[in-house]
Design a protein that fits this description.
Strands 8-7-6-5-4-3-2-1-15-14-13-12-11-10-9 form a 15-stranded mixed β-sheet, covered by helices on one side. Strand 4 and strand 5 form a beta hairpin. The protein has one domain: outer membrane lipoprotein receptor (LolB), chain A (Clam), CATH 2.50.20. The chain has two helices and 15 strands. The chain is mainly beta.
């Protein structure tokens, strides 16, 4: 009996780990529906996290459109095991205008280099970075890990081409409707400010081990845009 109990005790951590799915416990693939207030469907987005030899590969794709305007954005981030950025790529196609950039992070040297691939002639920009600098995708996944440990990330500069200041504030638990069902989620408000943006949005996180983002609401002058998890 004692041997059985000891074996069971040794297996418990493995059983618990097996029950935890999604980032950062396992590879993850999430799909979201993009809609405008009133429920008008505009497109969809996907978020994928895959383990790599160095850490993780993170990818986001957003395809949306309204009459007279469309966008097809793709983001890629390679991060190390500390969730610090190694490389960030953004390929944005918005209204027929394309921006294709890559930022390489040298964390040891405290430097980064942004190279513009499209439009041609954009050139290269070198700039200093703080320790464990993070791009926008790296920061999004880092936030989930911090929330899973009961912490809200401190204000930080994140990189999306240029540097943007991001402040997070925990608002509290709220009931949200997802897939026709009511679920309890933790609401976090993000304030983003930089050379080309000054806005806030609300993110509702599941109370699971992975702190899965359930809903992202972005208030804009045209109305509230919402990304709802469809899996």
């Amino acid at each position: 009996m004692k041997l059985i109990s000891l074996t069971f005790a040794l297996l418990l951590p493995l059983l618990a780990a097996a029950a935890e799915t999604g980032f950062p416990y396992s590879d993850e693939s999430l799909r979201y529906n993009l809609s405008w207030q009133g429920g008008t469907s505009l497109g969809e987005a996907t978020m994928n996290a895959r383990r790599s030899a160095a850490g993780w590969n993170l990818d986001v794709a957003l395809i949306a459109g309204v009459p007279g305007f469309s966008l097809a954005d793709q983001l890629h981030s390679a991060i190390d095991t500390r969730l610090c950025s190694q490389q960030f790529e953004r390929d944005l196609m918005q209204g027929g205008r394309r921006t294709d950039e890559r930022t390489d992070f040298d964390q040891n040297a405290g430097r980064a280099a942004r190279v513009t691939l499209s439009p041609d002639g954009g050139g290269r920009t070198d700039f200093p970075i703080a320790a464990c600098a993070r791009d926008a995708l790296a920061f999004a996944y880092y936030t989930r890990v911090e929330l899973g440990q009961g912490k809200v990330p401190a204000p930080l500069q994140v990189y999306f081409g240029a540097a943007y200041s991001v402040n997070l504030r925990y608002v509290g638990a709220e009931n949200v409707t997802l897939g026709g069902k009511q679920v309890v989620a933790d609401r976090v408000q993000l304030a983003v400010k930089g050379p080309k943006a000054d806005f806030h949005c609300d993110v509702f996180f599941a109370r699971d081990a992975a702190r899965t983002p359930l809903i992202i609401r972005i208030p804009l002058p045209l109305g509230i845009f919402s990304l709802d998890l469809a899996r």
